[in-house]
Structure prediction request, 208 residues.
Amino acid sequence: MTDINRKEHWETVYETKNPDQVSWTQEKPETSLSFITSLGLGKEARIIDIGGGDSRLVDFLLEEGFQNITVLDISSGALEKAKKRLGNKAEKVNWIVSDITDFEPDETYDLWHDRAAFHFLTAEEHISRYVDIAEKSISSFMILGTFSKNGPAKCSGLEITQYDEDSIAARFGNRFEKLQCRTEDHKTPFGTFQNFIFCSFKKKEDRS
Prediction:
């Protein structure tokens, strides 16, 4: 799938479906919030949610007092839905419309969170590009949630890449130290279950 087709796909999804009609919806992203809490970040930490769409993670981060939040998504429609939901609070968030493989950040982030984008990359060039961008953009921590080896092979009609603890750590092991991983069953709005693996990483010190 080309970059243009990928964007068209996700714009269509968010234009035609409500949160209760897509599998990834969470009323409260408990696992992500638990991982974030474990890192002990200050409220001024620079946080970016990759593929955040209209996820409610940003709502809870704002409630907890985080002051420097960025949400990136390929779909402008998804971000507009999130802004509408947040109302005036949306002005406190930096919103970026971009395919993650085209992202060229002008700052580094203390925390990079992604529960939605990485496993949709199936071409080696796109996966490598993602890893390269993450290595350059993250100053401290990364949290990744992807479909596990026991999870679905497709999502939203698209092929995905499944991971386990070893394979996801191998992708990022050059510049990141794995802190913890856990698997969980996400219950979709349809009552089905998808198995995810979540891992947190710390950026290794640059010894060059």
Remarks:
- The CA atoms of residues 18 and 177 lie 37 Å apart.
- The first strand starts at residue 46 and ends at 50.
